[in-house]
Amino acid sequence: MTHLTNAGHEMFTFFERTPDLVCIAGKDGFLKRVNPAVINSLGYSEAELYARPIESFIHPEDREFTRQERISLLSGKALLNFQNRYITKQGNFVWLAWTSIYFPDKEIVFAIAKDITEKKQIEKQFEEKYAKFKSLATHFKSSIEEDRKYLAVELHEELAQLASVVKLDLEDIYIREAELSLSSKSRIEHALAASELLISTIRRISFSISPHMLDDLGLNETLKWHCKEFSILNGIPCSFESAYDEESLTREIKMDFFRICQEALSNVMYHAQASTVKISITEEAGHIRLIIIDDGKGFDKEKIKQDPGLIRMRERAVSVNAVLVIDSEIGKGTSIAVHIPKT
């Protein structure tokens, strides 16, 4: 009997002295008993806390989902680390993380809460800083893309046209000047071939710097053309397949998908020694997934973590809240996957 009395005394001491908020509530939604920590945190007297339904102390925006959790609690599901906001008597609010259990035989809820207001404020500060830096990163990225677009237009519209004029003049001389020596004709033919190659190179570089097709025709058509061009220039078959709603991607994401593909194909061209490349964009479980697979020599991921190309791909993925996964082994090719939630 003495043992039970001591245990009860210890429990009462814990109830009164613990810095956690401890309360007992009835099935009717009213508080039956609270410890001093509840009074200190919310600023109400015991009488005020017992006189009103618990819901009236909850932040209006949190009442509905709290009500749903309470229904689950009364049906026998324990509540673990449930977070909501309570309004203090001074008009402020505190964040509380609850652990609660319902005793059906007594028709009471026993609940313990920790005040996590400071933690939530720190989280909010980090979120605000993250949003600020993300906004700056997006601004700089957009600015760079605009500069690239301007440079690409200058290359295509100015240099390519000047090279075309030179080519036309050479063709005119070759056709009109009948008395040209064989040596001169040979030099002109060489110059014509070089000017044709120059025009083609300028257009290819212009596309590489800024793919104007992306705005005009969309991501799918741009990647189809890029794969075809890659196959012709490198002799490596490159295919593209898509099964997703392109309209669900923003222009920023489309550009980042293209840049990641561009970087991956560049790695294939210079390092992979692959015989085929496959690119696909699919949609599943609320996510859009870009995958680039090659059957090349592969690499040891641990040894080239700081490879500039891989870093650029990761940075682009992170900038649009995507997850980039690189899977490669020596002799088993490489798979690059980008997963992004569908907006």
Structural class: alpha+beta
Terminal residue distance:
64 Å
The CATH superfamily of the largest domain bears the name Histidine kinase-like ATPase, C-terminal domain
Number of strands: 10
- State the low-pLDDT regions, or none: 1-9
The biggest sheet amounts to: 5 strands, antiparallel
* Sheet with the most strands: spatial strand order: 2-1-5-4-3
Tell me the radius of gyration. 34 Å
Overall spatial form: elongated
CATH topology value of the largest domain: Heat Shock Protein 90
One letter per element, helices H and strands E, the order comes to: HEEHHHEEEHHHHEHEEHEE
Q: Give the averaged pLDDT, no decimals.
A: 85
Q: Would you give an account of this structure?
A:
- The protein has 3 domains: 2-115, Beta-Lactamase (2-Layer Sandwich), CATH 3.30.450; 117-210; 217-343, Histidine kinase-like ATPase, C-terminal domain (Heat Shock Protein 90, 2-Layer Sandwich), CATH 3.30.565.
- It has 10 helices and 10 strands.
- It has helices spanning 2-17, 36-42, 46-51, 63-74, 117-176, 182-209, 213-217, 219-234, 251-272, 308-319; strands at residues 21-26, 31-34, 79-87, 93-103, 108-115, 238-243, 277-284, 287-294, 323-328, 334-341.
- A 5-stranded antiparallel beta sheet has the order 2-1-5-4-3, sandwiched between helices. Strands 6-7-8-10-9 form a 5-stranded mixed beta sheet, with helices on one face.
- The longest helix is centred in the middle third of the chain and has 60 residues, at 117-176.
- Mean pLDDT is 85; it is low at 1-9.
